[in-house]
Amino acid sequence: MSAPLDQQEHNRKGIVAAARLFSNIVSPPVIFAVLGLALALHVLPLAQALAWAATYGFIVSLLPIIFVLWLLRTGRIGELHMSNTAERHIPYLVAVLCGIIVFGLVTLLDGPDLLKCLAIFNIVALSALGLINARWLISFHATAIAAALTISWLLFGWQASLVVLPFLIGVVLIRLYLKRHTLTQVVAGLLLGILSVLSLTWFGCFIWY
Q1: What's residue 8's pLDDT?
Q2: How far apart are CA 31 and CA 169, in angstroms?
Q3: Nearest CA among 93, 89, 88, 114 for reference residue 32
Q4: How large is the angle between the packed helices 14-25 and 158-177, nearest 10 degrees?
Q5: What span, in angstroms and rounded, lies between the C-alpha atoms of 139 and 202?
Q6: What domain range includes position 136?
Q7: In terms of C-beta density within 10 A (0-12 exposed, 13-18 middle, 19 or more buried), how is residue 203 classed?
Q8: What's the total number of domains in the chain?
Q9: Does residue 3 fall inside a structural domain?
Q10: Mean confidence (pLDDT) of the chain
Q11: CA atoms of 64 and 69, how far apart (whole Å)
Q12: Is residue 119 assigned to a domain?
């Protein structure tokens, strides 16, 4: 696989810069934070929903970002998107631990079941991604956006999933355009996101109510 278009800073201009910006905004931490807010608002009054969404977003989304930025700043990884799979092992482990922590908090403090389910998804999907990336690069972006679309469909109906669909298409096209992933790696990420969510429905998660 050739080097990503945006790997070198001097290439980050024009369409490449716009594509990179989209990838940074519609990224797994942001997707999970927005999804956490939507799920909390679905089952809780506004004030409680915001409090739980902030807790979930801080632990599951912000803390792993801060850790990755620290790795980047200290030279432990070469670039933000970690195209080198060997650089992803510890960040995935930290992200899984964050998922376990938020699951424990939601359980201990009797938080919303939907956030508990989302934390379980984080643990399952990130563990799978970590294991796969030990041997092969798979698209975490695709996994996250596919999971968001599937959860939206299950909880809010197909009309709501149409809101997510343009972002899914954008993620697929841009990750391919930037040469961050091959088509096979993106499709594998999509399938992992969809199947992980659907598998959790067997345990009562993400069922409409």
Answers
A1: 67
A2: 14
A3: 114
A4: 140
A5: 25
A6: 9-201
A7: exposed
A8: 1
A9: no
A10: 91
A11: 9
A12: yes
* Residue corresponding to tokens 């299950």: 154
Could you give the C-alpha distances from 106 to 44, 151, 171, 193, in angstroms and in order?
14, 19, 30, 22
CA separation for the pair 190, 117 (Å, rounded): 19
Question: Nearest CA to 42 among 104, 118, 100, 95?
Answer: 118
CA atoms of 11 and 157, how far apart (whole Å)? 41
What number is the average pLDDT over the span 43-54? Answer: 95
User: What per-residue confidence (pLDDT) applies to 28?
Assistant: 94
Q: Are 180 and 139 in contact (CB under 8 A)?
A: yes
Joined tokens for residue 75:
């030279």
What are the CA-CA distances from residue 92 to residues 52, 131, 139, 201 (Å)?
A: 23, 9, 13, 24
Give the per-residue pLDDT at 76: 81
Question: What letter represents residue 92's amino acid?
Answer: Y
Residue 109 has pLDDT above 80, yes or no: yes
Q: What is the mean pLDDT of residues 94-102?
A: 95
With respect to residue 207, please indicate whether it lies within any of the assigned structural domains. Answer: no
